[in-house]
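Sharing a chain and its predicted structure for anyone who wants a worked example. Both blocks are below, sequence first, tokens second.
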Amino acid sequence: MNESVMIVDDEKEIADLVEVYLKNENYEVFKFYDPQEALQCVQEHSLDLAILDVMMPGMDGFTLCRRLREHHKFPILMLTAKGEDLDKITGLTIGADDYITKPFNPLELVARVKAHLRRYTRYNEREPVQNHRIEIDGLVIDRDTHHCTLYGVPLSLTPTEFSILWILCENRGKVLSSERLFEMVWGEKYLESNNTVMVHIRRLREKMNEDSRKPKFIKTVWGVGYQIDK
């Protein structure tokens, strides 16, 4: 079965263009100009990824992203206006996995879709792998089941959040820079002034009820990167 992607953008020309490029890659595409219709779609169909425009009348992309994150963990990409850094940070903070700015190269968007779907597929794999389970002072993360608990309480993590936490745990005691983390998780070259990793680390700490000033698990080594102590 082909992987399914939902596009939600009130700019019909953009939504239609993205649809063409995705269908050329054999994805099943659900396209909507109205966010309310998109919400109805997720109740009736199983999706693998969503692409949401930020600026839409009625319900904006941020609200739609929050609604989707209440029940779904598939990757979400946000389409933001060029130079609107606040939109990017807001989208990542509320649960989006990535963003791309308008105007964009459709081939770049397709490449991002492929990268996130590869990671999402790994997130849902059940094949055993070496060193599949790590336990650190009450934190248990299992790569076979993609299940994570803290002091016995399940943590609801997106595939991106799980990947970042797994890499930090797997490299326990090592300091990983934002650049290195980004390239390991996203599989792309890190761009200057990219705050994507920082925002995801912040969300992880919030879900783990970590004090950002004195975190027990994910620690910041100023000017270097992030680490989980031995």
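Comments welcome. The chain has a mean pLDDT of 88.
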